Amino acid sequence: MTFLVVVWSLNYIVAKVGLRELPGLALGSFRLVTAGIASLPALFFVRAEGRASAKEELEPPTQPVRSVWSEVWTVTYLGFFGVVLNQGCFTVGLNYTSVSHSSLIIGCAPILILLIARAMKLEAITVRKAIGMALAFAGAVAVGIEQGGDASAGSARGDLLTACAGLGLALYTVLGKRAVTEYGAVRTGMLSNIAAAVMALPVALWQIHALANAGRLGMIGVQGWGAVIYMGVLASAVSYLLYFWVLRYMTPARLGAVSYLQPVGATLLALVLLGEPITRRVALGGLLVIAGVYAIQTRSGDIRSDRELA
After folding, report:
1. Alpha carbons 129 and 254: distance in angstroms, whole number
2. Staple 117 to which of 55, 122, 192, 197, CB 3.0 to 4.6 Å?
3. Which domain holds residue 296?
4. How far is residue 29 from each of residues 55, 90, 99, 264, measured CA to CA in Å?
5. 37-56: average pLDDT
6. What is the C-alpha separation between 206 and 92, in angstroms, rounded?
7. Number of structural domains, the chain?
């Protein structure tokens, strides 16, 4: 989880650097295709994991193994929600908004995760979780609001695309909870990346053709291609593999709450690498985020004090 927070926090900065040399649509599609390519070797080494890995879960699956077509459908919609919608919209949206705006909107995803998980009867909404979410969200607002009054910091288009990315992450997390217990964490994560790469490939080829015609393809330097590799391999293929692996042992809301730490990490990294300002309000917001995440991640000693709200 610590690894995911660090990698995804730095991902905001790397994306901003990559967007200096690549259009948002090109960077987003190249990232998805790279993630799919990087997932192929891992899938080869774990091809035997598949459905048999479900027997190694702490909680064995309660549903029977489904058909191959059912697995294809599952990884396809997971690839769309978690990779195409989440990662693609995040990358393109960041081209029109600031790091602070983007990290704040993505910080709303844990609330959606909790609500969707509750609607699907995968998780209860407790007093402790509600308080933790409120504290963490208030902290995320404090972190991101510093640039809220700056018209150049973000746009409606960028914020809307980033909101779609947050919704994609929420659906990916909740729907993925059941998938990993049936097909295995590694297999599900890798196949969803490959499915997303197939969907993004036509866009990537179109972007390559457009850049070549404009004479810009050969002008992409180390920073541009380095951003593609970092975002595709580390922030997508490796991180989503670990994300699904952790999801096997945690509820969706508890794992999703870790996303609240990303605005803090992204803002600190933006201060160091991009020179974006940090104030006392940001520091206070960071403390609220940490307090909220702590409340969500820890359990009360008295179960009765953690009674259900719904």
Report:
1. 9
2. 122
3. 2-306
4. 36, 11, 20, 27
5. 62
6. 16
7. 1
Amino acid type, 216: R
Could you tell me how many residues make up the chain? 310
Question: Which two tokens mark 231?
Answer: 């975002």
Instruction: Supply the pLDDT for residue 101.
Output: 66
Phi, psi at 126, each rounded to 5° = -105, 165
- Round to the nearest angstrom and report the end-to-end CA distance of the chain: 28
Place of tokens 């598949």: 50
What integer best gives the mean pLDDT of the chain?
76
Rounded distance between C-alpha atoms, residue 278 and residue 2, angstroms: 22
Chain Cα centroid distance, residue 161: 14
Judge if pTM exceeds 0.90: no
Residue that is written with structure tokens 């404009």 in the block:
214
* Inter-CA distances, 260 with 100, 106, 132, 142, Å: 13, 8, 11, 12
Residue 275, sorted as left (phi over 0), alpha (psi -120 to 50) or beta, turns out to be left
Over residues 175-233, the pLDDT tens digits come to 888 788 777 778 888 889 999 999 999 999 999 999 999 888 888 899 999 999 999 99
What is the CB neighbour count within 10 angstroms for residue 44? Answer: 9
pLDDT at 182: 79
Highest mean pLDDT among 97-106, 125-134, 235-244: 235-244
Residue 16: CA count within 13 A, CB half-sphere? 22
Give the gyration radius of the chain's Cα atoms: 19
Q: What is the DSSP letter of 238?
A: I
Confidence of residue 37 (pLDDT cuts 50, 70, 90): very high
How many CB atoms are located within 10 Å of the residue 210 CB? 14
Compute the distance between CA of residue 244 and CA of residue 188 in angstroms, rounded to an integer: 8
Are 210 and 95 in contact by the 8 Å Cβ rule? The answer is: no
